[in-house]
From TrEMBL:
Keywords: Signal. Residues 171-204 are annotated as: Disordered. Residues 1-23 form the signal peptide. It comes from Haloactinopolyspora alba. The keyword Signal applies. This is NlpC/P60 family protein.
């Protein structure tokens, strides 16, 4: 666990080094959202007295608003990154408090009143800024993305490093064990493609990866399809997947049509088993669906036309499979199928 710095100036997201000043709980602002003090005032794991009190307040306010445990962990990780769980009276420009909320979120007194600042984080600021509970689909986001959706920080990935600590603090406060990240609860949905690879579906996985890399390299260089000479192949995911496997066309009008055909014929795999290298990964986004080729070790080759969402120029890329479900795409994973053409 990272030990939070105490007793000296430090830098937080978007801030120069600042001195530590603690605002009293009764210092201005709305008081109606202050929860009853937690019965247990013992220090939380590796936090000092002030940090522990603020962590307990964040959790108590969240519980009062029926925030699930993941949301409480998001809030703890956010406050750890923004202020080291300290109630700062100044920061970058007009940012103050545990969450370094800026002036439009509320008065100085409200933003430096820990219960009110925590409530703002969960339910939104006084200026109608969205809180965590206002973010569509936040429960299914990675923790750092959920935090960033509220904070809109210049360092959107910074919250991730506090995730393990946040769950540890939450467990210490609530007595609930941290989640076991080694397994997923059975929610009725097929698991995402992660874990150790089964035996490949192709005779030469290295050759498949080399062929995939040739497509990606040609796309990056602005060159035509290295095997078929086309220039717009990256717009069609099903065609690209077929060509990676040595077929000019998929034989289907869309990836969704291809998946439905595989499902009807009984070759689709929806039991949550990990895909072998060479498998076709299917996603059931409407209306066309999406398909990529699994290359092994968590990597897949895919076209990418979501320029605005991904920040990449449309083309062909080799990416982590998590990009499809947890990255900019947010695609619903359906399962995998052998490359039958």
């Amino acid at each position: 666990m990272k030990k939070l710095a105490v007793g000296f100036p430090f830098a937080v997201v978007g801030m120069a080094a600042v001195g530590l000043v603690f605002a009293g709980a009764g210092r201005g602002g709305a008081q109606e959202d202050q929860p009853c003090p937690p019965d247990d005032t013992a220090p939380v794991a590796e936090l000092d007295e002030h940090q522990s009190a603020h962590a307990r307040t964040i959790v108590a306010v969240g519980e009062r608003h029926d925030v699930p445990e993941f949301g409480l962990a998001v809030a703890l990780a956010t406050a750890a990154q923004e202020s080291m769980l300290r109630n700062l009276d100044h920061g970058d420009r007009d940012s103050v408090g545990l969450f370094q909320q800026r002036e439009p979120w509320g008065s100085f007194g409200e933003r430096t009143h820990p219960p009110t600042a925590a409530k703002f984080f969960y339910t939104g600021g006084a200026g109608e800024q969205p809180g965590l509970l206002d973010i569509p689909g936040w429960q299914n986001m990675p923790l750092t993305e959920a935090a960033q959706a509220v904070q809109v920080s210049a360092y959107p990935d910074a919250y991730a490093k506090w995730e393990d600590d946040a769950w540890t603090w939450l467990a210490d406060i609530t007595g609930t064990p941290p989640p076991d990240n080694g397994c997923d609860p059975d929610d009725g949905e097929p698991d995402k493609p992660v874990g150790e690879d089964p035996p490949p579906l192709v005779d030469d996985p290295a050759a498949l990866r080399a062929r995939a890399q040739a497509f990606a390299d040609a796309s990056e260089a602005g060159l035509p399809d290295p095997f078929y000479g086309a220039t717009s192949y990256y717009l069609l995911c099903a065609q690209l997947a077929a060509r990676v496997h040595g077929h000019a066309h998929s034989g289907h009008i869309s990836a969704l049509d291809q998946w439905q055909a595989y499902t009807a014929s009984g070759v689709a795999v929806t039991d949550g088993s990990p895909p072998p290298p060479g498998a076709l990964l299917f996603y059931t986004n409407q209306p066309w669906g999406h398909v990529a080729v699994y290359l092994g070790n968590g990597k897949a080759i895919s076209n990418d036309i979501l320029d605005e969402q991904t920040g990449r120029q449309g083309g062909v890329y080799i990416v982590d499979t998590t990009e499809f479900t947890d990255g900019a795409w947010k695609l619903p994973y359906a399962g995998w199928a052998p490359p039958i053409y």
